[in-house]
Amino acid sequence: MEPAAKLDPITEAALRSLKDIAVPQPVSWMPQTWGWGALAAIAIAALLLCAALFYRRWRRNAYRREALRLLDEIADDFRSPQTREQAITRLGELLKRTALAAWPRQTIAAASGNDWVSFVSAHQGGEIGTSLKSYLDDLEYQAPTALNVEAGDNLLRDARHWIERHHVSA
User: What is the pTM of this model?
Assistant: First the structure.
């Protein structure tokens, strides 16, 4: 190794007199003008409004979630020959209870037969499925052997479709 080179006295004096680099102050995250604060307040208010509307809609559709849960139980009972008769009866009750949760009792309680089928069809947003229509017409009053498994699956699919998509006027 070579010995370190000796600096001349002027260079040594210059190096000793050097100061550290001056670092600027960090930039503040606070907005500098009132416009940004107003924009942030509007954005927060819009988010809160969206959250409130979402929560309100979620609460308003609680009856649908409950009806779909009960429909899943009915579907399990429907596949068993021992509980099929009860499941057919419970399906009619479920559809009526779902409608009672969304519309006034005076409108729903009196609906039966063709009036009930017309009501369900009118609030579907289109034509209801043929299996649900035949069920509401008179199939729910027949013996459970009148429905085979495939027809039962179609009926449950149409009932699920109506529960999920029926339209309730505000």
Answer: 0.69
CB 151 within 8 A of CB 142: no
Tokens matching residue 80: 């068993």
Residue 103's contacts (CB-CB under 8 Å, 6 or more residues apart) are: 168
Please give the Cα distance from 20 to 27 (Å, whole number).
21
Residue 169 has phi, psi (to 5 degrees) of -70, 145
Domain range annotation of the chain = 63-165
135: Cβ–Cβ under 8 A, 6 or more apart, which residues? 91, 92, 155
* Locus of tokens 């009792």: 105
From 30, 154, 142, 149, select the one nearest 78 (Cα to Cα). Answer: 149
pLDDT by residue, tens only, the chain of 170 residues? 566 777 788 888 888 888 888 889 998 888 788 898 899 999 999 999 999 999 999 999 999 999 999 999 999 888 887 888 888 889 888 999 999 898 888 888 888 778 888 888 888 766 777 778 777 777 666 665 556 777 778 888 888 988 888 888 75
Token pair for 34: 């009132």
